[in-house]
Amino acid sequence: MIWNELKTAESSPRWKCLESRTDSKRSHYGRFSISPLLKGQANTLAIAIRKTLLQEVKGTYITYARFQKNILHEYSSIIGIKESVHDILMNLKQIVLRSELYGIHEASICTVGPKNVTAQDIILPSSIQIIDDTQHIASLTKRIPFNVTLKIEKKKRYTIENMKQPKDIFFPIDGVSLPVQNVNFSIHSYKSSDNIQEMLIFEIWTNGGLTPRETIYEACWSLLDLIIPLLCVEQNIKNSQKKPNPLSLVTKDRNKKKNRGEGYVK
């Protein structure tokens, strides 16, 4: 099976998708291999890629919510709504979004009760998609308007900044989960010619905001973004004689694709 393919593999390591499935809208699974690797390289790659997958992959989140009504704090209750403001914020936190564009975007909810408000009621920019539009937000028990303005951002390891909002207050939504839910890896040794080589197997679970394939792409680029600056040399050393750095060309191409919302591994 896969071991037979290793005999004809090229000397440089390559990714290969071994299994990919969608268990539900919020649960995607992928299993991938990297091979061939020299003895010891698999562990080095595994630690770096796993940490990057869990901590550095960017996700799209609802980060702030502003209610039209005058609300003093997040534990306030609103007449005609079953949930408190805090409960509504926690429900908004559970919404999984997908976007290929960066920056801050606005969305809104404008509806009238009585009704159950779900993620389907959110009015979004065309570049943003809701993964599961059945997510509950609030229960309106009376005929009252429910108007909420939302801020949406795509970033990594979302953290709340201190904000001073006197009247027109935006409530922060913290503790948002990252796209990658879990990562496992295993290392397998095999004999090739007279050398002992290794194959690295990754198992990745995501929440649907990104597929496992896309998280691998993002993780590898995050590692490159960290390492490439270390390869730069002083500009005054034979500047005119230097050949173009292929890594810098690849990075420029990636930035162009990022601005156009392209570049994901499909």
Automatic annotation (TrEMBL):
<feature type="region of interest" description="Disordered">
    <location>
        <begin position="241"/>
        <end position="266"/>
    </location>
</feature>
<dbReference type="GO" id="GO:0003899">
    <property type="term" value="F:DNA-directed RNA polymerase activity"/>
</dbReference>
<protein>
    <submittedName>
        <fullName>RNA polymerase alpha subunit</fullName>
    </submittedName>
</protein>
<feature type="domain" description="DNA-directed RNA polymerase RpoA/D/Rpb3-type">
    <location>
        <begin position="29"/>
        <end position="233"/>
    </location>
</feature>
<keyword id="KW-0934">Plastid</keyword>
<keyword id="KW-0240">DNA-directed RNA polymerase</keyword>
<dbReference type="InterPro" id="IPR036643">
    <property type="entry name" value="RNApol_insert_sf"/>
</dbReference>
<dbReference type="Pfam" id="PF01193">
    <property type="entry name" value="RNA_pol_L"/>
</dbReference>
<keyword id="KW-0804">Transcription</keyword>
<dbReference type="Pfam" id="PF01000">
    <property type="entry name" value="RNA_pol_A_bac"/>
</dbReference>
<dbReference type="InterPro" id="IPR036603">
    <property type="entry name" value="RBP11-like"/>
</dbReference>
<dbReference type="GO" id="GO:0006351">
    <property type="term" value="P:DNA-templated transcription"/>
</dbReference>
<dbReference type="InterPro" id="IPR011262">
    <property type="entry name" value="DNA-dir_RNA_pol_insert"/>
</dbReference>
<keyword id="KW-0150">Chloroplast</keyword>
<dbReference type="GO" id="GO:0046983">
    <property type="term" value="F:protein dimerization activity"/>
</dbReference>
<dbReference type="GO" id="GO:0000428">
    <property type="term" value="C:DNA-directed RNA polymerase complex"/>
</dbReference>
<dbReference type="InterPro" id="IPR011263">
    <property type="entry name" value="DNA-dir_RNA_pol_RpoA/D/Rpb3"/>
</dbReference>
